[in-house]
Recover the amino acids of this structure.
């Protein structure tokens, strides 16, 4: 299943891999690969399959028990949250990256209700922590995050776990790299740089002018 999700990200053209001029993420990490999950909304078959896999995964993990709402992270997470909320016939909210005035959440949050946070992806998890804080400040219980893609190497899952939130991701960079290799996508040099990053992300980032934690 992880390979299949990784393949869909490649099919949708979400992955960019470089050998020079690294990407600099808002968290300060530098990377040779970038995931543009926002493209997924434009591929109906892919997005439908991803949501089907997501629901199954959440069900298997017991994350759908007692849910009272689904909250999308601005902006790419909103469509995915809406599709999941519609499938489960649950209320939808979305969380802005920054408050407009005093309001960061749109939609109605049920006091004490359990909300599933949804986004297209997680890298270092900074935005997710802000979304979780905002939802909790409004009285929601947040115990689970669903994303299509987790970097898997920047430590977001353990940090979110410390904040009481489990991460449910369909795939990570290792899955995407294996799939890209199997398909012969990207140059050998790009695949090699990608592998070096995954083997030592902190060292790679620092060596390319980024942060390492
Ligand atoms: O900091 P993290 O929690 O790891 O999340 C990384 C964020 O990167 C993407 O958003 P981006 O800012 O690229 O824009 P968009 O969602 O508005 O498309 C993605 O949608 C996540 O929200
Ligand atoms: O760290 C981020 O914000 C980030 C990383 C990435 O690969 N793609 C993205 O959209 N955001």
């Amino acid at each position: 299943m992880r390979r299949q999700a990784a393949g869909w990200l490649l099919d949708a053209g979400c992955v960019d891999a470089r050998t020079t001029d690294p990407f600099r993420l808002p968290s300060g990490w530098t990377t040779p690969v970038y995931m543009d999950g926002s493209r997924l909304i434009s591929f109906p078959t892919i997005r439908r399959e991803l949501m089907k896999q997501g629901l199954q995964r959440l069900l298997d993990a017991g994350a759908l028990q007692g849910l009272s709402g689904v909250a999308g992270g601005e902006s790419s997470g909103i469509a995915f949250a809406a599709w999941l909320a519609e499938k489960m016939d649950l209320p939808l909210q979305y969380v802005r990256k920054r408050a407009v005035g005093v309001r960061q959440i749109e939609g109605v949050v049920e006091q004490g209700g359990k909300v599933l946070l949804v986004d297209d992806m997680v890298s270092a998890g900074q935005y997710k922590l802000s979304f979780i804080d905002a939802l909790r400040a409004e009285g929601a219980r947040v115990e689970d995050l669903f994303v299509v893609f987790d970097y898997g190497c920047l430590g977001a899952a353990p940090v979110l776990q410390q904040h009481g939130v489990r991460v449910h991701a369909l795939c990570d960079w290792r899955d995407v790299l294996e799939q890209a290799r199997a398909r012969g996508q990207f140059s050998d040099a790009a695949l090699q740089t990608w592998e070096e990053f995954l083997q030592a992300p902190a060292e790679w980032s620092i060596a390319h002018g980024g942060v390492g934690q």
